[in-house]
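Anyone able to model this chain together with LGQLAAA5?
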Amino acid sequence: MRTRVKICGLTRTEDAQAVVNAGADAIGLVFYEPSPRYVDINKAQEIAAGIPAFVTVTALFVNPTVDYVQQVLSNVRIDLLQFHGAESGEFCRQFGRNYIKAVPMKADTDIDKIADEFYDCSGLLLDTYKKGVPGGTGETFNWELVPQECRKPIILAGGLTPQNAAQAIAETSPWALDVSGGVEAGKGIKSAEKITQFMQEVMRKV
Ligand SMILES: O=C(O)c1ccccc1N[C@@H]1O[C@H](COP(=O)(O)O)[C@@H](O)[C@H]1O
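re: yes, here you go
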């Protein structure tokens, strides 16, 4: 079975089209203003409107207010929520939507305990820990920290590129990869060529 792929941080409709054409499974829209990949509701509506059935539209938040999440959900076609801050399990589940939870990986991170708190999530997204930076670091973490077994699907993130995607799959056997900076031509601007290369590497066995 092929590893699933989410391409995150889309800010342009043409980039979304490139992601769909390359065969990725999900796109991510960043609703976090400090990010260079931030999109407002109007832009998000425009991008999501071009996404066909069976490609998941993910809304990424970092410690949002309840009102903001509800506003996005009321106005944009969103299939999955991604919480990338210090949100609690209770906070994440109050919207009654499928969600994934980001976990900043440190040497002592207890994934089983986190899986207990987020027992109803659709996946745990393991990302690089960097003090003061919630995500989109462009840096990998020590993949030996990825558990071989987990009761939740593991989504590997952090510094993935067309050059390391196949190796990441071989070493960690995740359910999915989540990439942002590694397929960009510039901050918030995706490269169709890098997206295609990334998908080819995911399909390649090492
Ligand atoms: O992309 C961002 O700007 C971002 C901002 C705040 C939180 C998360 C963000 N992106 C997520 O970070 C990971 C890894 O990104 P990268 O491949 O290392 O650039 C990915 O899950 C993005 O969804």
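The pocket of LGQLAAA5 is lined by residues 8-9, 28, 30, 32, 35, 37, 60, 62, 84, 125, 127, 134-138, 157-160, 178-182 (CB under 6 Å).
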